[in-house]
Amino acid sequence: MLAPAPSAAQYRGMPHVIVQNCCNDASCVPECPVDCIHPTPDEPGFATAEMLYIDPDVCIDCGACIDACPVSAITTDYELTDEMAPFEEINAAYYRAVGSAADLDHPYADPQLGRRRPASDAEPLSVAVVGAGAAGHYTVSELQHRIDVRAEIDVYERLPEPGGLVRFGVAPDHADTKKVQEQFAAARGRSGVTVHLGVSVGENVTHEELARTHHAVVYAVGALHGRPLPLPGGDLPVVAAAADFVAWYNGHPDFAGHPFDLSHERVVVLGNGNVALDVARVLTADPELFVGTDMSDEALAALRASRVREVVVLARRGADHAAFTAPELVGLARTVPVVVDAADLSDLGAEPADPQAAHYVRQKLELLRDLAAAPSPAPDARRVVLRFGTPPTAVTEATGGAVVEFDEHGTPSSLECGLVLAAIGLRGTSVPGVPFDEAGGIIPNADGRVLGSDGAPLPGVYTAGWVKRGPTGVIGTNRYDARSTVDALVADFHAGLLSAE
Ligand code: NAP
Asked: Which ranges form a coiled coil (predicted)?
């Protein structure tokens, strides 16, 4: 683990610390009177930030950010639990890498400045928002916070329950992260919003019907499915998308009864993003950790009966390109033994030129070196093995499971297992009647305006979230993504480009 930093509290106040479940929605940023939380949404590093950070040398211990955080991810340093202790250093290290918050001159811009209230008899803006996940809810709340329109919003959700990937994608043991749903419920509950659950656009109602009856339709349908594994044997029944496994253990109705073979001692996960770490943690953690969470009874029973002892995560590139974030690696290592081979951590490429990106690489390598130096887990302990520079080449079926073939520093190698989970990224969900870019797995758009086959914007059709920009960033990243879509939509409304029956 990272060595604890000399506590800033020793020389000034009790600074605050942002911990693992930061959702990056930056609600805390405008509340801070001394501008000590970065990167802010208007700073270049925001889009690629693993989390937000408080500068301990600038924080004045006022507590305003604690109240503003929707997921309880901010605490004072004296209240840090042992488990969260590494985050004191993770916050401080960010400012050593990018410079003091006192010198980062990026005042958070109020998007409402310069706008005027509509006349009381002005036509309301009617919007259909399709998808009740993070992007859909942020679209609703961005419309509600506009003072220059009065929006009447219909939310359509295919499932009988709202929440999208916050409900069915966030790991069940990340209860604090799921608290953002309280903010979503508040947005849904405001006047002017009607929620239609269990209504599938393209099946129960068509895109044309929504487009005709609203000024605008915003598709915020997310990215539920994993990308197909482009390998020989990638479509064998023993290979499943990690995204399907996540949806199954979270009780997604589409995946109830889905078979996942947990009778073999080993599972191989391909790809090493945060989804890979989530499934590796869930497969090796004590199942009792998930009692009383969103995990389905079916998944809890299967994990209790599981014979899986080892999850091997194979990454095709070196450790300096690891796709997981440092907070999630800290969370994994806190839960189960993580095995790393020190040999995988030498002979790496040059650091990125960007200070924030370089800081993230250094921080992950430091954490991995600590793990490599830790004593081996007891022989019978469940563990996660992280391997790097091991591109998979094929999957073949074998008695009782599968063999994953991969390249290990130029030498062919293989591993037997009972289940292969492909955690190689997600794909946006297509909607009948709405353009879809099959290669990119997104709805083609420019600033959220959906583009037709001729490349021109389709009047009144918009998109937000992962199906707009691809599956990147964390929950709160979708807030600023939704804001840019709403900016385009409202501009088109004021320009007289939108009509509704
Ligand atoms: P991801 O972060 O994009 O990682 C994809 C991984 O798959 C990378 O290691 C990538 O390797 C690898 N990969 C891609 N194509 C491959 C191929 N053909 N063969 C082998 N490996 C391949 O995707 P993700 O894990 O699905 O996560 C999606 C988003 O959700 C991310 O923004 C993530 O941070 C977020 N998320 C966050 C949390 C959290 O904060 N707790 C939890 C879950 C998900 P290369 O790097 O070499 O391409």
From this structure: none
